[in-house]
Amino acid sequence: MNEFAVSVKDLTRTFGDFTAVDHISFNVARGEIFGFLGANGAGKTTTIRMLCGLLMPSSGMARVAGLDVYSAYEQIKQRIGYMSQKFSLYEDLTVRENIEFYGGIYGLNRRQIRQKTAELVQYLGLEKQVDQLTRSLPLGWKQRMALSAAILHDPDIIFLDEPTSGVDPVSRRNFWLLIYELADRGKTIFVTTHYMDEAEYCHRLSIMKDGRIVELDEPRRLKERYGRETMQEVFMEIVNRKGEQ
Amino acid sequence: MAAIEVEMLRKQYGNLLAVDNISFEVSPGEIVGLIGPDGAGKTSTMRMIVTLLPPSGGQIHFQGKDALRDMSLVRANIGYMPQRFSLYQDLTVEQNLRFFGDLFDIPPGEQKKQMEKLYAFSRLGPFKQRLAAQLSGGMKQKLALSCMLMHHPRVIVLDEPTFGVDPVSRHEFWEILHELRKEGVAILVSTAYMDEAMQCDRVGLMYKGRMLAMDTPQKLLSTFPGELVRLPVRQPEKEYAWLCEKLGDDRVQLFGDGLHIKLDDALGRQALADVLADRPGTTGALQQIKPGLEDLFLYLLEEQHE
């Protein structure tokens, strides 16, 4: 049994003569909130697609939930949850119907779906809205619901690809409290974000630039090492400086 | 004369008052920012200003003229970048620009001049032959902005233009806005990023259709009541829950690996230190800090909930 939730060594992916991900290595511990940062086009999404079993690496090693991405990509999909900024809830289904739909997709039986629906609705405080169309919910609530739908099958590792884009500070905090709670229950969270204040909620951060990981540390230590007050300043310095070399 | 002047503007959808009698103006050479939670009415306000949504009440003046009577004047002279803009993915950068130039009947010679300027602005010059589909997120945003600048609008309205864009690309995007401001363009922009709001000349905070406050960032910040301290913590969510219970959740906010706590007459520094003494070893030393726009935003929203 592998002790890491995600373990990556020299992972590489090329498209033609373009190297999107270039020999990256890192480990993510169970229950860790791991922030995966980088400029647009740095290779984050390509990496996530490989880790989710959606894209074969060109070379290198990657294990997710102890499973090899080359051979066990189908099993990996059952052990992970995934939510992106373009999360998909059916706007013209009710809250209940959406949960039932995702339960069905993840292969839960009727009894499990009924039980999960009740649990989730109570957990999210959506009792009054359960039979309303999803369209009528504010974006922040939809986001929390989309996250909940992504973890209906009780996965060990949750991939969040810019989950909070365009959300206001209040909703983002509620979302992060939910993430902390999941981590507390032993779930591993792998999250990308462009909000640098939000990056500071992560236990550790990696910063990608041109396909490589150029920094990996706790936010507090990164700020100390760069002598900066905020991750925003650290990020700008790293991405700009290393880009000029 | 104001570029945009909004007076007692109102939009009602059935029972929902999406925009509730707001008034403000945007002057040439000024960047006015709108912030607020989802559903606050920012998008509806912008859509009314660009004449895509009829108001339920109130007045909009565009460069001194009644915008509701003279919609074609507004449309010909305003630049609008909606939240979900559309570029032709199968056209190149240059073809997209030309398309928008043609749309506004800009003569070819003038288009060429404006394109050269926009390439310099946006640093998209080296990519003019690239298909829009093959641009990165930040470059697409800059191309969308460039497209809406092809007809030299003196007034532009941008609805969360940097949605999903990394910090470096956002910085470049805002450099363009600052250039436009210098040229006297009036800019109305909504954003979920507080660092962008800080760069505006004036910022309005909207909530449930109302304008809770609008002023320069510095003046807004000076309205923050009491003092603010930061408490570094090891486990933010646990210390946050604990302190909310002790102090009430309107005083404590999560900020990365620390908490921001509001002090005032009812809770002084010593009283807070006494509370924290109950839980030794979990936190660092209190630091006095200046409130930021996000602190003020959270405070004003808490106040609305009471």
From TrEMBL, chain A:
Organism domain of life: Bacteria
InterPro entries: AAA+_ATPase, ABC_transporter-like_ATP-bd, P-loop_NTPase
Keywords linked to the UniProt accession: ATP-binding, Nucleotide-binding
GO molecular function: ATP binding; ATP hydrolysis activity
Keyword Nucleotide-binding: yes
Domain ABC transporter: 6-235
Cited SUPFAM superfamilies: P-loop containing nucleoside triphosphate hydrolases
Record-linked Pfam families: ABC_tran
Entry-linked PANTHER family: ABC TRANSPORTER G FAMILY MEMBER 20 ISOFORM X1, ATP-BINDING CASSETTE, SUB-FAMILY H, MEMBER 1
Record-given protein name: ABC transporter ATP-binding protein
Species annotation: Caldithrix abyssi
Automatic annotation (TrEMBL), chain B:
ABC transporter domain segment(s): 4-233
Name of the protein in question: ABC transporter ATP-binding protein
Source taxonomy: Bacteria, Pseudomonadati, Calditrichota, Calditrichia, Calditrichales
CDD domains: ABC_DR_subfamily_A (cd03230)
GO MF: ATP binding; ATP hydrolysis activity
Record carries keyword Transmembrane helix: no
InterPro entries reported in the protein's UniProt record: AAA+_ATPase (IPR003593), ABC_transporter-like_ATP-bd (IPR003439), ABC_transporter-like_CS (IPR017871), P-loop_NTPase (IPR027417)
Record flagged with keyword Zinc: no
PANTHER family in alphabetical order: ABC TRANSPORTER G FAMILY MEMBER 20 ISOFORM X1, ATP-BINDING CASSETTE, SUB-FAMILY H, MEMBER 1
UniProt KW keywords: ATP-binding, Nucleotide-binding
